Amino acid sequence: MRPKILILGASGFIGSRLMASWRPDQYTATYFSRPLDGAVRFDVATQRLADRFLLRGHGFTHAILAQGVTRLEQCALSSLDSATTNCVGTKGAMQDIVDAGVHPIYLSSDAVFDGTSGPRIESDEPNPILSYGQQKLAAETHLAKIAGSWTILRLSKVVSNFVHGRNLLSVWCAQLAGSERIMCATDQKLTPIDIDDVVQAVNFFIMSSTSGLFHVSGSQILTRYQLLQILLKYLPHKIRHKAVIQTCLLNEIPFAELLPLDCSLANAKFRAVSGLHPKSMEEVCETLRHEIYSDESVAFSAQR
């Protein structure tokens, strides 16, 4: 059977890239706050999929749950409101998806761990300290209980080789071009992954109908500062020369909640089952450099 996909949250960083990888006749997409051509507005917190999309004869084979409040500080400061979407609404969507005989693929996060050690494997016990992580874990737990066949993909920090407001690398490039000071933690560990590798992973799980819990992350364990140093290495000299970087510890950066220090995930299970090998951050940064500075210009727009 040819896959037919329902994608929730198609206007987000990951959702929009997923949608761009498919033909229009392969999917139905939704958005909430950011209108998107070809997508339907849907509020997971107040509406039910069973009433809008999962009607008799719907034909969907898979549903990607990429919707939700994803900004950590917003979840911390408005935990009840964000939980209405990330927990209550998402659980309702999961129930409707399962009841309709559709395979759910839930995009979760490394934030389900407390950051005390890493890299974490799938069998490690979650213990989130962030409101966002607590909401993600609650949805994970609910899905595992109600569905006989499900896929949960815990993602690490997602970056890209193109300009986007949610891409840490291109945000740094914009700050560097504007001679802004960058406060960069030397003690937080990440396993960043390129967004197109995430898209490849999701497509693998759709086509193979592989079930279970998988950590979809890069293979390099890097501190934020090490990641920034890799990026700087590939930028034009005139950008590197005027870079203003202030190293710090993570707890020196003001935030509403305690942030996890070690966010690294082990991706061996994912690589073994899929045969995919995520790109290195050197590859991503080199391509991004050509995307932004192809003419050696420092003119740059932070959003596209």
Structure description:
Helix 1 crosses helix 7 and helix 8 packs across helix 11. This protein has helices spanning 13-20, 49-52, 72-77, 79-99, 131-146, 168-177, 195-208, 224-234, 237-241, 268-274, 281-293; strands at residues 5-8, 27-31, 39-41, 62-65, 103-109, 151-155, 158-159, 181-185, 189-190, 193-194, 212-216, 222-223, 244-248. It folds into two domains: 5-155 and 193-216, Rossmann fold (3-Layer(aba) Sandwich); 159-189 and 220-264 and 280-293, Alpha-Beta Complex (UDP-galactose 4-epimerase, domain 1). The longest helix has 21 residues, at 79-99. Strand 1, helix 1 and strand 2 form a beta-alpha-beta unit. Mean pLDDT is 94; it is low at 296-304. The protein has 304 residues and is α/β, with parallel strands linked by helices. It is globular. The strands form four sheets. It has a seven-stranded parallel β-sheet with strand order 3-2-1-4-5-6-11, with helices on both faces. The protein has a two-stranded parallel sheet with strand order 7-10.
